[in-house]
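Hi X.,

You mentioned you wanted examples for the new student's onboarding notes, showing what a folding record looks like when two proteins sit in one file. Here is a clean example. The first protein comes first, with its sequence line followed by its structure tokens.
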Amino acid sequence: MTAVDPNFSAAEAKEAQKEARRARLFTRINKADKWFQVLGLSWLTPVLKAAAGDNPRAQAGEIWRLLGVPILAITAFLTLWGMLAPQVQTSLGAVPGPGQVWEQALNLHEDAQAKAAKKAEFDAKVAKLNERLIAQGKEPKARAFTGAPTYYQQIWTSIQTVFFGFMIATVVAVPLGIAAGLSPIANAALNPLIQIFKPVSPLAWLPIVTMIVSALAASNDGLLPKSFVISAITVTLCSLWPTLINTALGVASIDKDLVNVSKVLKMNTYTKITKLVLPSALPLIFTGLRLSLGVGWMVLIAAEMLAQNPGLGKFVWDEFQNGSSQSLAKIMVAVLTIGIIGFLLDRVMYALQSLFTFTNNR
């Protein structure tokens, strides 16, 4: 009988433990990769895999593709921008380069901090005055700060508006899309309306919405300001179509065998929709929601510019009307801000899509 080498067995066991640890590490990296993709940080996966010793040469190629190439493209864009911008003269002077735009971004940040400090000082004075009035047995007075909104406040106003309009669009579009997908009669009724109203520009909707809202709300004393409601409804009217169309398509594409099973089981309409229709159609519904949110964000900026409603669109228009030497750089800051926020809004919707569906769409 051959004796077993105890040293060999110990080394083999140690190697097996090492491989098991590596396998667990790669499992964690693969799980994290899903969220890296959601956050736009998919390049972190090959970095972690290379650090863990998984074919470093192949991972270096992935790092170059996912991180190196985008950085190179952005660097080339900034270089060309910096070279060509001074050569273009406008009524406001030369087109600002990246350095000037960054300088104005810092100026907007400092201005926001200064305005926030003024507001805090005003609130402190009002609180002190009210304490004095209460001590004298008088009613305290409510006084609002009348200073101009900061750049960050205008960003937040636009984000609130687009989400409000987007939520209204979702509440309207998803039920109608389900009805159109389940019923040929509902589809025949809705299809002409979709084809007629889907191409309508927000610039055409805005005057109609403004007149109707102004007629129904004579003052700004309601729960929401009129300007906010006007912008939100305009967003709704232009952004509901992608969700409606994709929902109808997703519902209509459900496997016919599943529909037959629901008939055999004699499911009522509510159970059929919640247990069968929605889970099957969710990937396409979320695709429509992502498209709708992107459309809504673009529509909102145009609506704010035309109607002079508070938000980033009004900021751009005010700077254009201002005509100072710094206005063009501030407008470009706003343009970059709009693009970055649009990207982040899409990432938010993709994160929700990843939580509720199994689709691989990015």
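Then the second protein repeats the pattern, sequence line and then tokens:
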Amino acid sequence: MGKNYIDIENDRGETLRYRKHVNGRGLIAHGAKVHPTAVVETGAYVEPGVKIAADAHIGRGVWVEVGAEIGPGAEIAPHAHIGARAAIGPHAKIGIRAHVGNDATVTTGSLIGDDETIPDGDRVATDRRGLRLAA
């Protein structure tokens, strides 16, 4: 049986250890907290300090940066990027290749479309069709 972790050197020459998540085999950095019922697919990276709640789904190739929080039942589609300290609310859906900036917030149940960008520090609320609401 192969090892359940991998060491990767970052841009500053520091070595970070990532473990393979039991549900999906995505890479979880030491210091991140991922609920056992969450799915983190292969090719996804979850950085230190991230919190992923129950039943969240992190797709292939997603990058979740330091200190981000993913709410229960949230769905992050493949190749999306969640910035540092961003907050994704419960049952929110983030589209393919979408980018949520640093310190941005996507509220409960919101829908962010494919290839959409949420700027750093922005707060976004949408209805179930993705139409913007007053946040």
